[in-house]
Predict the 3D structure of the following.
Amino acid sequence: MTMSAEKSLVLEDSGVLRFPEGFVWGAATAAYQIEGASREDGRGPSIWDTFSRTPGKVHAGHTGDVACDHYHRYADDVRLMGDLGLHAYRFSISWPRVQPDGSGPANPRGLDFYDRLVDELHGTGITPIVTLYHWDLPQTLEDRGGWTSRETAERFADYAAIVHSRLGDRVETWTTLNEPWCSAFLGYASGIHAPGRTEPELGFVATHHLLLGHGLAVKALRAAGADQIGITLNLAPVLGDDAEAASIVDGLQNRIFLDPVLRGEYPADVVERARRFTDWSFVQDGDLETIGQPIDLLGVNFYHPHTVAARTGEPANPVYPGTEGVAFPRPDVPRTAMGWPVQPFGLTDLLLRLSRDYPGTPLVITENGAAFDDVVEDGRIDDAGRLSYLDGHLRAAHAAIEGGADLRGYLVWSLLDNFEWAEGYAKRFGIVHVDYTTQNRIPKDSALWYREVVRRNGL
Ligand code: FCB
């Protein structure tokens, strides 16, 4: 199966919303969030090992040391995906398993794990979708500056080539980075995520080196023969009556990534506004050409829109440097356990906007889902809140397809409850429940519902 299936008519019969033929249904996870086995088979430390051990950074001092023990239970987890009828599985590769200190020769035992996983997926009829970087930078690279250093971008391209040389015969679809906004602005500007640095300027420096790493990796993968390459961005429509406030946040959340990747340029207004933090001298000749290499897919992670308002005296939000005077009011709508507003129409708006402003790149929803406080009762999890969230967002995605968006697939976040970064294990996003004491898995009601959606290719 490929992501390039031609779209056929979206039929609606007897009240069933059907998705285009060949639409890809799946689920997503990330290495640090599920694998555990943090010291096994030569894996080196990552910035999340360090950060999660830093007092006060992660809820209750949780770490990814054991997580869902997926490293040992991957075959059972693949069987579970098979039972749910999934077409595709998006997982990430742990860079410090492959190169324990982020450079030099590969650690074959680290690659062996992904080799086994890919074979298991193929054996179950599930298409692997590989994310090369989902936030677990080797600590040794961070010690040399991490994403504030240009060298990290170069090392990333080497690593991409190593992974491709081992898996490229069986993996067709490659994602370079997951959500570089989080790496840059949560990791280096606001300190909410690893490595926990808190300098606004570094948010911009890291953004550029992440994007450069993306471009160099695209080149390396292309040279090695890959032809389904993309990047995953966390994108969000910005709502609110004040057009300037909305545009400022839109620039920092969306356009600072979309424009260089899909148009080969940084948005002028974002560059200008950030001049009080940086002179942008880290952008070198030729970088934007590298970053703007053609890609084959854009991965869209969507959770909720943002709402902003102009309010004199409001301090800047540290995750969006330079947003003094912009407030983030809470719309009066239902919320998930993360406190995130449930506003599915935002997904329709976003997909249509991408089709309009950045035409020609097929879209895949690489993450969408919700945390709720699940209760296990008699071995069953009635997660009506999550089910309704997913149903609403699939209807919103369908509306975007009908409006002309070239959406090729949907991957729910997440297959399993897992280590939710700074929230530790306190927030559960899985459609499958994980008991962290026994490692027992139970498909929640949303998983059983999703199995039917996949089977019917519709709602
Ligand atoms: C996204 C991340 C993913 C998960 C979800 C809830 O930002 O890519 O790992 O944490 O949010």
User: Anything to note?
Assistant: Confidence is low (pLDDT under 50) at residues 1-12.
